[in-house]
Amino acid sequence: MRAGFTLVLACFALAAGIALGAGPLAGDDDTTTPAKQASAQPRQRAASGLDDSFAAAVAPTLYDRRLANQTVTILALPGADETVLKGLTDQIVAAGGAVTSRVTLTEGLTAPGEKSMVDTLATQLATQMAGSADPAATTYVRMGQLLGTAFATTDAAAAPTPDIATIRQSLVAGSLADDAGTAATAPLVLVATGTDLEDTIVTGLVEGIAAKAHGVVVVGDSFSGDIAAVRATGTPAATVDGVETPAGQVAAVLALVRQITGGGGQFGASGIDGPIPVG
After folding, report:
1. What pTM was estimated for this model as a whole?
2. Contact (Cβ atoms closer than 8 angstroms) between residue 220 and residue 20
């Protein structure tokens, strides 16, 4: 059984690499003539459909319900694609997990012109709620810590405390989040990127969230600038780009599974650790 699982994993890694543009069949645009490019397009589209079908077929075997009894908070940054978010949610459920909260963060949080307001609110909350965030941290690291306190945990999932409820209400009142809800905190956090943000904003938020969660996976489209920025900082979070594809979404869930026992990693279309976590 173990040998069969390993074979399926190896086959999926190959298929995912091809689907995400990192496999051995990826071409070199600099040396391909226009005629060859034109004739190759139908094959590429057909291969993409095959890769998507293969990902859907093998995902349950790869997951083996390894997210059973695990809860996940999804934090969606501005511009995150709704179809991708639904696909990620469905895959988390297919792996046996549950999404306790899906919070959409707004441009009021991430627009460079709003930094002064974000800093003021983060300072007030960090001062009022002891232990929620480091008042001396930089603006977006501090705000990330507050987001982590509000929606994540380093321990078991738990109902929100009065302090957590206050932070959530303040985020909504300040137009930094659309609806914070009343769901329990979750040990695992999936941060979905969208429109490329300034590097210091996205990396600060992820660093702060990671300090307050058991495990964090940051996902984005193929070759996302935000993913590249997070990878460059060495933040202790796993990253997956290419989640606009089913193969990328499966890779994201496998990265969440990996977070249960710790470990980061860079996966997906441009991940140096391969298209999917294989360990």
Report:
1. 0.84
2. no
Confirm whether 21 is domain-assigned.
no
Under a CB-based contact definition with an 8 Å cutoff, are residues 194 and 78 in contact?
yes
Closest CA to 67 of 243, 239, 240, 256: 256
Domain containing 146: what range?
Answer: 64-268
Q: Is residue 170 part of a domain?
A: yes
- E-only strand ranges, 90-222: 98-104, 188-192, 215-220
The terminus-to-terminus CA distance of the chain in angstroms comes to 16
User: Which tens digits make up the pLDDT trace of 66-114?
Assistant: 999 999 999 999 999 999 999 999 999 999 999 999 999 999 999 999 9
Task: Tell me the CATH number at 229.
Answer: 3.40.50
User: Side-chain half-sphere of 55: how many Cα atoms within 13 Å?
Assistant: 30
On whether residue 212 sits in a domain, the answer given is yes
Phi/psi for 118 (5° steps) reads -60, -45
How many separate domains does the chain show?
1
Q: Any idea what the Cα angle at residue 253 is, between residues 177 and 246, rounded to 5°?
A: 95
Whether 263 is covered by a domain: the verdict is: yes
